[in-house]
Each structure stands twice: as structure tokens, then as C-alpha cells.
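From the pipeline queue, job 12 of 40. The input is one protein chain; the requested action is below.

Action: predict structure.
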Amino acid sequence: MQAPHVRSRLLIPIALAALLSPSRGDPPVATAKIAEWAASDRGGRADYQESSHGQTINIDSLACPGKITIVDFSSDYCAPCVQLAMYLIKTSKTYPQRYAIRRVNVNRPGVVGIDWQSPVSKQYHLESLPRLVVYDDRVKVAEGDAARQWVIDDVNKMVAKSTEAQSGQEAQPLAKKDPNPAPQ
């Protein structure tokens, strides 16, 4: 019988092999699912395009006149990127006249994992994903963390306008006014 420490040393490589999926360079399902959902009529039509696949790109040329264009640098191997892409597409489907989504996939074909060495990753000095750049009528208004907040604020404004239009009343602010204001 083997000693317990020898048995555990043998189990570690077996457990790791079982946890790691085979890497043949096949693209993950996320790209196909995202593109399929964006193109479908489920939930409306989204103004969505995916480009780059690791190659250099002029993101300024992706900006759409008359719309808020959200350029989303992402990878299918980044779970938050996939979640954000689905949220952005849902937003574009809800407000198709307002938002255009342009997903820049940083991965070159055949590269498994986030492709930090791709030409587009190097071109824009990407160190974390997802990364957003926002254009309003072809003018860059925010990028990085500021872009994420800009999108959240803008979507909240659109929701408030929709709620206001449906109810015929002004949307209630999130924070209530102080019922006992300080005397002036």
C-alpha cells in the first residue's frame, strides 16, 4: 500500500487533467452564441458587429453617426467580457435607435486564452478586459472605467425616460428629498 502523501501527489496531476478542457484551438461557444442572439429577433434587433479577431483596427472608424457607439474590447475567454457583451446587446435591442455595439475581439484565431500578445492588444496597450470606449455621434466621450460609468448613467437615463413616458409622470429619483430640510 502507498503512503498517503504519495497517493495525494499522484492525484493532483490527475485532478488537474480532469479540470482542464482539451485545447485544440477551437473557438469557445461564446462568440457564436453572442452573434446568434444579436442577430435574432428575440428581444428586438441589436445594432451589433464583431471585428478585429486580434488584428489592428482604427476604433474611431467604428463610431456611428447619430448614435452612442460602445466599442467593447473583449475575449471569449473572459467571463466578465461575455456577460458584458450580452448586457450591451440587450441594451441595443431595447434602444436600437440609440446604441450601436462594436465588439473588438482581441483573440487571433487558434489562440486559447486571452490573447494579450495580439496586434490589437498591443496597439491599444490592453492590460485588462473588458475595456470600453464610448462615442457620442462620432466624438469620443469616455474610455476605460469612466466609459463603464458613462454607459450605466446613460442607460439609467433611458430607463427613466421610458418609465416617465409609460406612466405619464416624472420618474421618481432614487434618493428621496429630506422631509426636514435645514432652515436657510
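Job complete. Helices lie at 4-19, 29-39, 79-94, 119-123, 145-167.
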